[in-house]
Please model this.
Amino acid sequence: MSLIHSQKRVLSGMRPTGRLHLGHYHGVLKNWINLQHEYDCMFFVADWHALTTHYDEPEIIQENVWQMVVDWLASGVNPGSSSLFIQSRVPEHAELHLLLSMITPLSWVERVPSYKDMLVKNNERELSTYGFLGYPVLQSADILIYQAGNVPVGADQVPHIEMTREIARRFNHIYGRDPGFEDLAEVAIRKLGRKNSKLYRGLRRDYMEQGNQESRETALALVSDQKNIPLSDRDRLFGYLEGGGKAILPEPQSLLTDASVMPGLDGNKMSKSYGNTISLREEPDSVDKKIKTMTTDPARVRRKDPGDPNKCPVFDLHKIYSDAEQKEWVIQGCRSGSIGCVDCKKPLIESILEEQQPMRERAKQYEENPDLVKSIVSEGCEKARNIAKSTIEEVRSAMGLDYR
Ligand code: TRP
Ligand code: SF4
Model:
């Protein structure tokens, strides 16, 4: 029962390593905000994940934990419908991380694409640590501790969700078997005949141990092709392929955030590391200045020179903020040299300020009253701990750690 319920649970986290910007808003937060009407949402500050890379700068994390929660609230995450909490305040994440690390093959963590990517990207940091290698296992624990069915993330995180599924599957395979189910499945396997039984067992092993999808599909096809076995046996053979009767840790799905990339001030993807961001609660004067000093199509030396919007980062922002009519105005005006870049930027500045206005307003009450933020987070932590406790008890007992 908790399984069906938990499939409606959404969980996601962010690392508090810097202030949030409009790229986070368009790329992630808008998605969170839409989901909170439909799902039981849990959003957390991944401070331990931040420590895996910023272990020598704890003050950055400390500063950004609260700022990040205010940014979430400012963008419209509603504490009435979503639980907001901090990872390190729910120590069950750490226990599950430890327990999952027992069954996670080293090759799985080493082959996660983001591992080598992050090592390269952060080459100024010393990241050959045990903690950093375990990053995706900790993330798996974050998700599985709430038995969350859905995880809204950007495309870069999909390999981590995939690995979470593999770890859950392996866990369920090792610890989740229901003895009655297994006996019946064995009888059904024998009914396949000598050759097909052997084939089925081999494919199942490949899939369970290596996560080999092709083996899973071949086994499914093998079972489907058996015309002479009863339906109940067929279902059992399908089910057995997924690990057996009981799924203690359900496999989550990723909910992909819109693939379109939020452009920054220089035409590259908006990102802290490129220094091309507008922060979520940036002062209006500063927004104005940042847009006014953006470089434009270099062909437009004089105001009358025609330009090409496709060569201009300002137009990339119009694609996000302007309707069809306004974009047409830009294209015509730019190509014919009838509008200047200053004119072109003006409505853009207005749209950004308008978007940020409600955020600044919502943020104000929280900035003035930090205790309010703390109490929202306390409540979220408490709810999170209740769910986490019940999962960790099931996990302990599945692993035989419930002796008294
Ligand atoms: N690794 C994620 C990121 O960098 C943050 C994160 C940590 C996360 N744990 C999570 C996201 C669990 C979703 C679910 O964006
Ligand atoms: Fe860019 Fe607009 Fe100037 Fe054209 S008119 S170059 S799109 S800022």
